[in-house]
Amino acid sequence: MTNLFEDFLLDIGLSWTLAKYVPFIICLMLGFLLFKIWMKVQLKVWIKIVVLTVDCSLPFSLYFFFYPIYQPDLFNKAYVPKMQPDDIPTQTTLAVVVLPGCPYCLQTTAVMNRLAAQNSKLHIVYYFVSEDPEAMKIFRRKLHKRIALKSGIDATRWMLAAEGVFPSYLLYDDKQLKRAWHNTTFGVRALDELRAYK
Predict the structure, then answer these.
(1) What are 102-156's pLDDT values in tens digits?
(2) Which of residues 69, 102, 124 is at a domain's end?
(3) Residue 187 scores a pLDDT above 80
């Protein structure tokens, strides 16, 4: 989900949102610098316009091509599950509902490890909606020791709470659901909310 530059910005204390957008601002500044340089070159007007357009937009376009901004990075959209599990956490917990064998679910581990380090008051628990001991071992190796794993506990209702979208993220506080995000709506805005939660 992040690249080396974003990781560096997060490491020096920037928010998830700023770490996402600062590289784009730098690319725009680089494009403007290229524009200033090419303005001094003597070329035919139509060639100059083509070169300026390509050169000025190239840094931003290339960065966006490799690290795009998605809708959840702009808007913090949550959903309301139609069904809740019986096994609701009692403390402030982010429940990450995952399906073993799902590559997107496995990709969440790096982000959740960083989030666990950023907010020690937030408990993160991975809920597996099917029994797969091998997948749990893989997740355990990748996850921080503070992040718990649970499987087989109320799995059907957790699957219904996630509405069949994996991974899904449900934030609980005092046995109350505060927010819920699907994989397609979970971005840097949600991560900043969780980083600052309580």
Answers:
(1) 999 999 999 999 999 999 999 999 999 988 888 889 999 999 999 999 987 788 8
(2) 69
(3) yes
Three-state DSSP state, 165: coil
Q: Are 114 and 194 in contact (CB under 8 A)?
A: no
Mean pLDDT for 175-195 is 94
Contact 191, 6 (CB under 8 A): no
Question: Contact, 124 vs 93, CB < 8 A?
Answer: yes
Residue ranges in 12-96 assigned as alpha helix (H): 16-39, 45-66, 71-74
The answer to whether the Cα torsion of 192, 143, 146, 137 is positive or negative is positive
3-state percent breakdown (helix, strand, coil) of the chain, nearest 5: 50, 15, 35
Residue 149: give its domain's CATH number.
Answer: 3.40.30.10
> Rounded to an integer, what distance in angstroms lies between the CA atom of residue 70 and that of residue 170?
20
Three-state DSSP class for residue 89: coil
- Are 152 and 61 in a shared domain? no
Residue 136 belongs to what domain range?
77-196
Fill in the DSSP letter of residue 77: -
The whole-number pLDDT of residue 40 equals 75
pLDDT tens digit string along 39-53? 777 767 777 777 777
Hey, is 186 helix, strand or coil? coil
